[in-house]
Each structure stands twice: as structure tokens, then as C-alpha cells.
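Chapter review: from sequence to fold.
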Amino acid sequence: VAAVRHAQHQARAGAGAGAGAGLVLGVAHGCDIEFWQRGRAEAGEEDLLIAPRANRTTASVPAAGAAVHAPGHLFTRLAPAEGWQPATLVRTRPEFTTRLPDEIRFPIDVVYTWVDGSDPAWRRRRAEVTACDADGPYHEQAANDARYANRDELRYSLRSLHMYAPWVRHIYLVTDDQVPPWLVGSHPGITVVDHREIFDDPRVLPTFNSQAIETRLHHIDGLSEHFLYFNDDVFLGSPVTPQDFFLANGMTKFFLSRALIPLGPIHPGDVPVSAAGKNNRALLEARFGATVTQKLKHTPHALRRSVLAEIEREFPGPYRATMASRVRSTSDISLPSALHHYYAFLTGRAVPAPLRYDYFDLARPGIPARLARLLRSRHCQAFCLNDTVSCERDLADQLALLRPFLDAYFPVPSPLERAIARQEARQPCPSPSPSR
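The C-alpha cell string follows.
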């Protein structure tokens, strides 16, 4: 409720600022008002208030019972986490202040990995590392420009988190000595973590391999046991709850894709995600005798620090090799996005689950029409705007497509954005190239 009220206030504040400046909330964000009728218990004379429809706690309460005040998170799974705004107290009856067994009580943090591939200092560091590799990357998708392009997705992904998952406790942003210029780095809700803080071997830095960086996420100081891992091209598309990603007993959920990991050994033509999938599969076959065939969706990944640490101990060779690989390699494993889920499942700590999701490859035709449909329906709980093959000259065209879409989908700035940056985000995006 508090998050909705905040969005309504922001929408009213921006009502005259032009298209995309406000957020219109429809009937789906309303509430029902119930009128409990007086009645008596079947076996006695007690004066009761009878519920007009079923609920999960009680069918009636004493009519003369006293009212109490309870925290708002007992009545909605979308209550903001402590620290982001003052706790909301709700007037209710004592019967409704009990905690139900499926209520998630543990804190949930979010981790992002982010890079600005246009940063000259970063590009110099990357050039020095890639120049040392005489053979170059093993595959064109292992270190191409599309992998490091910055389309300002992080700003909008954080907006989606603020709009649709206010229950997140804290956000950690893992970067290579970079901070987005629009970010309020001093905000108590976010911590910027440099690679040097989580890698225990400085000889493997700088690294330009996201799979290497991902091997160290569970070493972030202060990170909660249960957390969500986002790439900056992943967005929430509608309200989600902690129960969409975790069970109250601590188990994690994962989301299988219909895409398959190619059979057979590593091949020079394997794209990086397939090579890592094959390496994951070999480890799981040797350890559990189970052959995994499906890839995982590019969603927020529900993870546990203890499981990641256990995998580090269980497979020290592949783990250390991936950590030390400064660009993607055929020997890499994909720890948080795949291996964690299957390992946790095979050890009884994770379950497959559904999630309304869509994937958009920006290099493919038909994307504008698909994005327009998504904007109209907002039917996805999460979606990914990914690109692994475009070159740097395509960036202006992609910005011309994405900026209006993202501004319309996520018009409310998060508290993590500087005020001046909010105005800059509304500036016209670059025009697409005439040849396209």
C-alpha cells in the first residue's frame, strides 16, 4: 500500500510534465472493503462478527474484541523493507497478528553486476588484458562490445525493483572501479562493491569475465544468506513477492528454460553459455549421476550464500579456474545462474517453479512490436533485454528503441537517482542511424 501511495504521489507530481512523466494506476491496484455481519456461535450465545468470505485465519471474531495496531507486512507481501521508509502500522484485531507458516521472515538482498563499457579507463584495462592473449577470445561472443555495452539499463532495473519489490532489504552493486554518475552512492539502501573487495587473489584482476566475477558474489561482506542476483538487463515487469523466489523454509526457486544444453563434449563453436552449461553438467554427472539438459531462464536468480560456498569447496579446481579466467573461456562454469540451482535441487535445497517471463534479443527483428505488446499488457513478472551479437555502432539505434519504452514502463525514479539525473533521463535519446 505504501509503495502504491508513493507511486500515486509521483504520478500526480508529474502529471503535467509530458508523456511518460507519471504512472497511471488502474483497478488492479484497488482494494475490496468487507462488511462483517453480527452473528452468534453455533454452540453459544457469544456475540460475533462473521467474515463475509473465507480468509486464512478465522471465520469470526468477538464483536466486543479490542483493536490493536500491527506492522503492515503482516497484511501484504509488498510491504517496504525496514530502512527504506518508516514502518506502516495497521489497525486490526489480535487474531490477525499471528504469523502464518508460509510467511518469509528472513531478509532478502539484491546483488547487481554492472560495467560501463564506454569508460576510457576501463577500455584501456581491457585492451591490456586482451592484448596478452595471442589467440584472442575463443568465441566472438566471449568478449565482443555487446557484452559490455551500457544502455542505462541499470537505472531502469533499479526503478523496477523500487516499484515492484519494495520488500528488498539492501542492494549491492558490484563494479570494476566504476560508479554510475546518476547514482546516489551514499544512499543507505545501496552499497557499491569494487572487485578488489571480493577477490582474494589480486593477480586475477582486472577481470572482464562476468562468470569469474559471479564466482565471488557470496564473498560480499554483509550480504544476506538469501539474495537475488540481477544482471542489469533484467527487469521486474509487475509486482513480485518474496514467495515468488523462496519458500519460507529457506529453499530457493529456479526457473527452467525450454532451451537445451547441447549434448556432447565442449566444441570450439559452442557459444559461451553452452560451454559453461556443458561444464556444469559434467560436474553434476560426476557428483550425483544426474544429467541436466535444460538451460535456465535469464531471470533474477534466487541464491543462498551457504550453497555457493559449498560449491566452492566441492569443486575447487573448476571454481578457481573460472575465477582466474579474465575473459570467458571454454573451461568456465556458470555458478549463480545455473550450477547453484541444479546443485541445490540435487541436495534438497531448491525447487523448480513457474515465473511469467519473456526474453528479448535486441539483435533480432520484430522487437519493437513485442516491446509495445509488453508495455500494453505488463503481463510478465520479469523480462530480459539482452544483446550478445550487436556491434558498438548499433548502440544509438538500440537507445532510440529502448529509452522511450523504459521511460514509459518505469516513469517513477527510484530514491537511488540523483535529482539532476532524473531530468537528464527525460532528455531525447539519440536518433537512429539513417541506414537503419
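Two observations follow directly from the output. The first strand starts at residue 37 and ends at 40. DSSP finds twelve helices and 17 strands in the chain.
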